[in-house]
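Table S5 (text form). Sequence records supplied for joint modeling of the two-component complex.
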Amino acid sequence: MPHSIARAEVQRLLEQGAQLVEVLPRWEYEEEHLPGAINIPLKELDRETTAQLKRDAPVIVYCHDYQ
Amino acid sequence: MSSRAAWRLEGLGFERVYDYVPGKADWSASGLPTEGTLARVPTIGDAARQDVPTCALEEKISDARDRIRAAGWDACVVVNKERVVLGLLREKELASDAKATAEEVMRNGPATFRPDEPLEKMAKRMRERGARTVLVTTSDGRLVGLVYREDAKHLAGVPT
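The corresponding C-alpha cell record, covering 227 residues in total, follows.
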C-alpha cells in the first residue's frame, strides 16, 4: 500500500536518493515541476515508461495537490 | 491523481512507493525552488528579506526597540516558537509605551502572502495600495520574510 507523505518526508527521501515522478500532463510539467523530477503522465504509466525508474530506490509520485 | 499513480506503480512491482499528496502546490507555496518555464518568473519569495527581526509576544517594547534599531530595521515580526506570524510592530508600535509587551501593542494578524506570488503583480499592487512592505509566510503561517516595495520594484523591474 503506498504511503502518503508530507513535504519534510519528501525532502528526507530525496537526500537518500529517492526518484520524483510528476504524473501530470507534459505541458503542466514543462511549466513547473519539482527539481529533478521526471514526467510520466498518469495516462502513460505502464511497464515501458517506468522502465527508466530504478527498482531499488524509493519512488515519490505527485501531482498538483489533492486531485 | 497521484494516488492512482502510486497504486499503479505498486501493481507494476515497485516496492517503495510514496505519494506526496499535497503536491506541487504545497512545494511551491513553501518557497522551495522549482524548475520549468514558469519557475523563472521572479516571486515575492525572491524579494523577501529573510533576516527581518523577530520577537516573542512577551518581549518588552523597550528591549525590542533597542535591538531592532541597532540592527538598522524599522519593523519587527512577532512570532511564536514555531516562527508562526502572530503580529507586526512598525515604527508607531515601536515608539509606544516602553513598558508594554509586544502582544499589547502589536498589529494583530497582519495580512500575509505566499512566496510563490508573482513579484511583478505584487509590486504593482503595493504601488496601488501605497503599501511599503508585505509579509511573506509559508502556507502553514511560518515566517519567510518581509518584502520592501523598493526591493520588489527593483527585482520586478516595474515603476513605483
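Note: The first strand of chain A starts at residue 3 and ends at 4.
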